[in-house]
Design brief:
The protein is of the alpha/beta class. The protein is built from 9 helices and 7 strands; from the N terminus they run H-H-H-H-E-H-E-H-E-H-E-H-E-H-E-E.
């Protein structure tokens, strides 16, 4: 049963073409350091038909390191699903840290992630808002005190709004703050000619991701690092 879970939750999220190499990375460096609550949440999420939407554990490990390096305390997450990255953040920030968590539907979070988060003793750090992302960001920006107040942001939501999220997060993040965007290599398709893509939602979202990547690459307000972890993450540090 355990081997089956590992297969469901690992290579399907990786960009490496060698499955054995990806498993080696996970089994040598990621899983041995994965906190028990995260391991439990990853495994109970695995049978879900949308399990691929969860944050990859190797990407999660990188996010945890970023949170620790910048001593993040006040964060925001757009797109929650069952809450793997949310739990990871809650475990990484201080006891008095806070996370604004936004998702259009909290059902998967309530039924799968929340019981584990409660047992981990970190529910008090989370302010869950069931909503589209943009209205919440716009509401925050109505209060001038919120500008430059966030240490960290994680975005794994509707790809068509990534650029809109970015503009608002550049105001909400403090200088030196970090935002991480998930799925920025889109199963490697960003490197393929558009004409090779079949028509449909996946092609449309690939276009959104390509436009985001181009925008981030030329944004002088940030330093960026694109890492081929999970489905690709882009780490952006606001420099002014």
């Amino acid at each position: 049963m355990g081997d089956c879970v590992e297969k469901i939750t690992t290579f399907s999220k990786g960009l490496l073409k060698n499955e054995e190499l990806y498993k080696y990375i996970l089994e040598t460096s990621v899983y041995p350091r994965e906190p028990q609550p995260l391991k439990e949440l990853r495994e109970v999420t695995a049978p879900h038909p949308w399990a691929f939407m969860g944050t990859a554990p190797d990407a999660g490990q990188a996010i945890e390191m970023v949170l620790k390096l910048i001593n993040a305390k006040k964060t925001i997450e757009i797109g929650v699903f069952t809450g793997y990255s949310l739990l990871l953040t809650a475990l990484s920030i201080p006891e008095d840290g806070k996370i604004i968590a936004i998702d259009v539907d909290r059902k998967n979070y309530d039924e799968i992630g929340l019981p584990i988060i409660r047992r981990a003793g970190v529910e008090h750090k989370i302010d869950f808002i069931e909503s589209q992302g943009l209205p919440v960001l716009d509401k925050l920006l109505e209060d001038d005190e919120n500008e430059g107040s966030l240490d960290f942001a994680f975005v794994d939501a509707d790809k068509g709004n990534y650029k809109n999220y970015h503009e608002r997060l550049m105001k909400l993040l403090k200088v030196g703050g970090v935002v991480v965007y998930d799925n920025t290599l889109w199963q490697g398709t960003v490197a393929l000619p558009e004409k090779l893509m079949e028509e449909g939602r996946k092609k449309e979202m690939r276009k959104d991701i390509v436009e985001l990547n181009n925008a981030l690459a030329t944004d002088s307000r940030i330093q960026i690092c694109v890492a081929p972890l999970g489905d690709g993450i882009t780490i952006c540090r606001r420099i002014f």
